[in-house]
Design a protein that fits this description.
Spore Coat Polysaccharide Biosynthesis Protein SpsA, Chain A; 445 residues; 2 domains; Rossmann fold; 14 strands; alpha/beta; 5-stranded mixed sheet
């Protein structure tokens, strides 16, 4: 039995309201057994922050104790067999104990619960989900993530249905319970809420300019970790944290829970809308001032065509209704004649987006790629990209053609000429700013 820590077991008791006298009594009774009792005061006024605060408690107790338990029961030393619990944990170290009472207590939805495991298993598991509000959902998520990591559950009866002293959580509002149930659908089991890590790099765009291929290729490198996220049941490589309501609703610590990997030392994500969203750029600067940024630029005429085709192919609820009817040739002709102020077109004005980016970040933090060159000089582009990220540049990856659409119809010469003429002054400013031209962006003869 490892005795290098002050306590063999630390019990975090989740409660609401002052229980100081009970805690002091328990501490006195359990001190000689090297068992610590810590009161976690569940904050009814700021429910969304409870997960983050509970993880702060967990981090601290994992440093102080060999085993850590979370419970909403005030354990009675006369009826709780702490010696048996410790023998189970130390005798079968890679397992955890989780018992939920069969029935809700005190006419509330919350059940009595005990979850305990060795400290290093808590770290491997990743603590508790920081965005869940209802305790039952927190415990359900712990079980799901333990199953994902193949951490076995010990068959051990804590006897929680006895009349122990229990916490006094008030009813959580029904709308928050509903929100929690929706969140459970989008929680991925590999997030680690104890080993928080900021991303080392972001692929910030441009949309429809190989960002999906870039992140897929980077994810093949043995030193690079690229997490997935889940939204409304759909798993995706696009995190959309800094440009969406996730920023306010989930918080930066939730974002940091995505990027820890026990082996791979460099991690990052891609959201191609970051470059065109100035709010997102400023948020990135606030939280990740030293992050490395990867930006792929594509001929804006081809990018606009691809974006339009994507909207048509997906039958998207967003985007111009006018371009969803007729043939692609007709839709593109209409787009280039009457809707030059639409986002499908304006996102191709790169100079304004890049100038704003360089007002916030140093040029050596940004790696600019050219979409057209990535297909003709794949090995060279990725060797330089790996060097930029500080990983083994000798690793070779085959081209990844992710999220590529099929565009069989052609564009009329008139629509091409209109759009090339529209982008010409913006591209000239971009080339001057970058210090080089991109010959592939010339109007085909």
């Amino acid at each position: 039995m490892n005795r290098d820590k002050p306590y063999l077991l630390s019990i975090i008791v989740v409660s609401s309201g002052a229980r100081n006298k009970e805690i002091q009594d328990l501490k006195a009774q359990l001190k000689d057994q090297k068992i610590a009792i810590v009161l976690y005061d569940y904050n009814q006024n700021d429910i969304r922050k409870n997960g983050e605060r509970l993880n702060e408690f967990l981090r601290k107790e994992c440093l102080l104790a060999n085993c850590v338990a979370i419970t909403n029961v005030f354990p009675n030393p006369k009826t709780f067999d702490f010696k048996a619990i410790l023998e189970k944990h130390f005798g079968q170290a890679n397992q955890y104990i989780c018992e939920l009472s069969n029935e809700p207590w005190q006419s509330r939805e919350e059940k009595r619960v005990w979850v305990s495991m060795r400290a290093y298993l808590w770290v491997e598991l990743g603590g508790v989900c920081s965005i869940l509000s209802h305790p039952n959902n927190v415990y359900a998520d712990i079980i799901a993530r333990a199953r994902f990591r193949e951490i076995p559950r010990l068959n051990f009866n804590i006897n929680l249905d006895r009349k122990e002293r229990v916490s006094a959580l008030v009813d959580i509002r029904a709308n928050l319970i509903v929100e929690d149930e929706k969140k459970l659908e989008d929680i991925l089991p590999y997030q680690n809420y104890l080993k928080l890590k900021s991303p080392d790099f972001l692929v910030i765009g441009v949309q429809k300019s190989s960002s999906s291929s870039i992140i897929s290729s980077l994810g093949l490198h043995p030193e690079i970790y690229t997490p997935m996220v889940k939204h409304e049941g759909i798993v995706s490589q696009e995190v959309h944290f800094f440009d969406s309501k996730r920023y306010a609703e989930l918080g930066f610590k939730w974002y940091q829970s995505l990027f820890y990997h026990p082996v791979k030392r460099v991690s990052g994500e891609k959201t191609p809308e970051y470059i065109s969203n100035f709010y997102a750029q400023r948020r990135i600067r606030k939280h990740l001032p030293n992050v490395k940024l990867i930006l792929s630029l594509r001929n804006p005429v081809d990018r606009a065509w691809s974006a339009m085709q994507h909207i048509r192919r997906m039958n998207a609820s967003w985007g111009l209704d006018a371009i969803k009817a007729g043939t692609s040739t007709q839709a593109f002709d209409l787009l280039t004649r009457e809707y030059l102020d639409d986002f499908m077109i304006t996102r191709g004005i790169y100079i304004d987006q890049i100038k704003h980016l360089f007002e916030l970040f140093q040029k050596n933090q940004v790696k600019i790629l050219v979409h057209e060159s990535m297909h003709t000089h794949h090995a060279k582009v990725y060797r330089e990209l790996f060097e930029f990220l500080g990983v083994d540049a000798s690793f070779q990856t085959a081209p990844q053609h992710a999220n590529r659409g099929s565009h069989e119809e052609s564009r009329s010469r008139e629509s091409l000429e209109r759009l090339y003429e529209f982008y010409k002054p913006h591209n000239e400013k971009l080339f001057e700013f970058l210090g080089y031209e991109i010959p592939e962006w010339q109007l085909p003869k």
